[in-house]
Structure formats: C-alpha cells, structure tokens
Amino acid sequence: MKYSAFSIFTNALSGHKNWQPAWRNPDPKPAYDIIIVGGGGHGLATAYYLAKEFELKNIAVLEKGWLGSGNIGRNTTIIRSNYMLPGNNPFYELSMKLWEGLEQDFNFNAMVSQRGVLNLYHTDPQRDAFARRGNAMRIDGVDAELLDRDAVREMYPHFDYDNARFPIRGGLLQRRGGTVRHDAVAWGYARGSDMRGVDIIQNCEVKSIRTEQGRVVGVETSRGFIVCKKLGLAAAGHSSEVAAMAGIKLPIESHVLQAFVSEGLKPFIDGVVTFGAGHFYVSQSDKGGLVFGGDLDGYNSYARRGNLPMVEHVVEAGVAMIPALSRIRLLRSWGGIMDMSMDGSPIIDKTSVHGIYLNAGWCYGGFKATPASGFCFAHLIAKDEPQHTATAYRLDRFRRGYMLDEKGQGATPNLH
Ligand SMILES: Cc1cc2nc3c(=O)[nH]c(=O)nc-3n(C[C@H](O)[C@H](O)[C@H](O)COP(=O)(O)OP(=O)(O)OC[C@H]3O[C@@H](n4cnc5c(N)ncnc54)[C@H](O)[C@@H]3O)c2cc1C
Fold this sequence. Notes:
By secondary structure, the chain is an alpha/beta fold. It contains 10 helices and 18 strands. The protein has helices at residues 5-13, 41-52, 89-106, 124-139, 149-155, 182-195, 239-244, 308-321, 370-383, 397-400, and strands at residues 31-37, 59-62, 78-79, 117-121, 145-148, 170-174, 178-179, 199-201, 206-212, 215-221, 224-233, 252-264, 272-274, 281-284, 289-300, 330-341, 347-350, 356-360. The strands form 3 sheets. Strands 1, 2, 8, 9, 10, 11, 17 and 18 form an 8-stranded mixed beta sheet that branches. Strands 5-6-4-13-14-15-12-16 form an 8-stranded mixed beta sheet. Helix 2 (41-52) packs across helix 9 (370-383) and helix 3 crosses helix 9. The longest helix has 18 residues, at 89-106. The chain starts with a helix and ends in a 16-residue tail after the last helix. Flavin-adenine dinucleotide binds at residues 37-43, 62-65, 69-72, 74-78, 205-206, 234-238, 242, 257-259, 293, 336, 338, 362, 364-368. Flavin-adenine dinucleotide (FAD) is lined by residues 37-43, 62-65, 69-72, 74-78, 205-206, 234-238, 242, 257-259, 293, 336, 338, 362, 364-368.
C-alpha cells in the first residue's frame, strides 16, 4: 500500500478501516538464498537494498526480539558526514545523500531533519584541528563552516561563553547534519523490504551457525533450522557472539552507551550541539525534550542499563555548557550495547567462512551510517566485492596495521 495524500483521503472516506499492516508476519521457510541476522537498522537496510537495487529474491531477516528493540531504537538520532579520513568521508557522505532522498525512496515519513550539527571548540589547538577537519570535508565536497564565537553566540545565546575552564571560542558547523526519527527508519526499511518479498521474522533468535567444509549451510534458530546459501551478520552489539557461532573471533568489545531525555521544554536548541571539552551532546526533540548523551560507561557489558557515575559525568559536562540545564528535570535514560571496534571504525567484509559476510564495529556512530551500510553490505553480498566507498572497512586491517583512527580511539581497551 503506497502512502500518499490521496491514500489518506480515500482511507478517511472508509473510516480508516482499510489500512494494511506495514509488513507481514510470516513463518520462516525451510530455506532462503540469503539470511540476514539482526533486524536493526543495518540488517533491514541491507535486505531493502538487496531486494530493491540488486533485485534479489528469497531473502529473510531474522530478529531475536522485535523490530526497533536494539540500537536502532535506542540511539540519539544524529546524522552527519563530518569525517576527515579518506577511508571514511566518501562513505558517510554517501549515507548523507541517501538520507536526503530516503523518505521519497521508501515512501515513509522518517522525519529527516537537517537542522545542523555544531561541534564547539574551546582552545586554539582544538580550533586548528576543527579547521583541518572542515578543510578535509570541503575538499571531498562535503559542507563545513568554521564559526567564531560571535556567530555561535548568535545561534545559541544561552550557552556559557565565559566559563572559566571551558570558554566557548567557536564551532565547526555542518548544516546538512541533523536528526532522523530512528524507529521510523527501521519501520520504513522493514515496510520497503516486505513489499519486495523479504520475510522479516521477529522473535527468531539465531542460536548457532552450521558450516560444512568451510562454507555456511544454515542457521539453527529458536524457530527451527533454516538453510541458506549466504549469511549476512548485522547483529550490532552482539556481533562478537554471533560471529563466534561460526568460529570467527572479532576485534570488537561490547560496551554500554547511555542516552537521556529531559522533560518537555519550549524550543531553545534548534540544532545538534556537541561540547568540545567533555562528554556531552544535545538536541531537542519535536516533543520538546532535550535528548542528550555522553561517553561509554567504561567497562565491557551486555547489560542494557547504565550506571550513575556516568549520568553524573554527562550532566556535569552539560551544565558546564548550558548552566540553565541545572533547573531541568531528567525524565528517563536507557542504555544500548555498542560493538566497539579497536580503531573506532566499522567492518563491512567477507569472513574466513565462505558465504558469511560481516557488518559490525559501528561503535557509537552507526545510526548515521544506516543507509550507506545497508547499501554497501548489500553490494558486497550480491556481487562478492566491496562497494567503492567501503573498501577501507576490511576485517584484516587490524592484522595488516591499516587502522582507520578517525578519532584516535575505539574501545580503548588499554584504559579499562
Ligand atoms: C544510547 C545510544 C546513542 C547513540 N546515538 C547515536 C547517534 O546519535 N548517531 C549515530 O550515528 N549512532 C548512534 N548510536 C549508535 C547506533 O545506534 C548503532 O551503531 C546502530 O544502531 C547499530 O546498528 P543496528 O541499527 O543494526 O543495531 P541494532 O538495532 O542493535 O540491530 C541489531 C539486531 O540484532 C539482533 N540480534 C542480536 N543477536 C541476534 C541473534 N543471535 N539472532 C537474531 N537477532 C539477533 C538484535 O536483537 C538487534 O535488534 C547510538 C547508540 C546508543 C546505544
């Protein structure tokens, strides 16, 4: 069913009784050509592009919970393509371009809002680093503007510009960055895949992977054994566990990242802003709540709940940036499990087992990558070769020493 003003009108005439479910709820078939493990953003986007761009059929997405129960429904919804390294920049810019046309493409309102992402700087060396990043972005055709303090103050008058420790000196702005309603992304990709014949099977946990003579044969699931010719792993925070089922050891640690929402407020932050002197970033949702977060909890975990010291750490940095925050009530917080790679960059690659493909290591930044990740992973699975913007995301780069240290940090295991 195509969504349009006309379909709203005609359904209104019949009392809105004829809307179809956005996707089917099929039972698993005994065999598929391609199975994707993980019905998060990346798994669903992969299935969507496999069916739409590569016109492949007989595909299933297996999700152990419900769609949106993982990080796709837990993140702080920020999208941007302000990356510096040649291995990253074209990939994230591809993602940004896909975001820009996504709603028309999958005929679903994902509330893509290019409200701007501003990274604040507080020192001269930080300004130089941001200028360098902005220049690298512009060389690659990505928009970037270095703002001085007055320009930032004009946008956000209530920040603390004269803080004795962390005075705000300016910021690097990407106007095309912004936010997207995260669960609508999962729903849009699910609906688009389902329309093209992909079976999305919820409450179907992959328990083990069967291989024969170095080749994948199928998966044992909570709903029985399913044969497949190709298997794509897109299990995000559980990537190491799922890959281990095929005897593959990943250079990934799983950590908790928390997010927070305040009570609803009148509009006062109309973009996304990151504090450059501590772990804090913030945007304001359409309902008025401030949506903010900080850094990882700092130890390996599969528990989706955070700890109070990190709450204090994040709020402390927030109050240093916006003193008025101290008067706002925190409404709720939650955690998600991050698949932290050792250099902070992702992996989209084949594995040592024939027919098993890996999409992992998205760290705290995988939401913005969802469209490009799905597109490039689908390309790899369909053609058995990497899409040209994703050639740096090899699994063996850790062995070869070709790290992609965009931020100079991944899981930082040396610190824990
Ligand atoms: C608090 C928080 C804030 C974040 N903020 C941002 C942000 O602002 N911008 C940004 O770009 N990124 C952000 N991220 C990161 C981003 O959300 C993730 O990198 C991204 O969502 C991961 O990909 P996914 O959507 O496919 O993951 P998920 O939605 O977690 O999908 C993986 C799925 O695999 C399923 N699965 C696991 N094991 C199995 C199994 N054995 N069998 C079947 N299914 C299985 C899980 O149930 C899950 O649904 C944030 C993350 C968190 C937690």
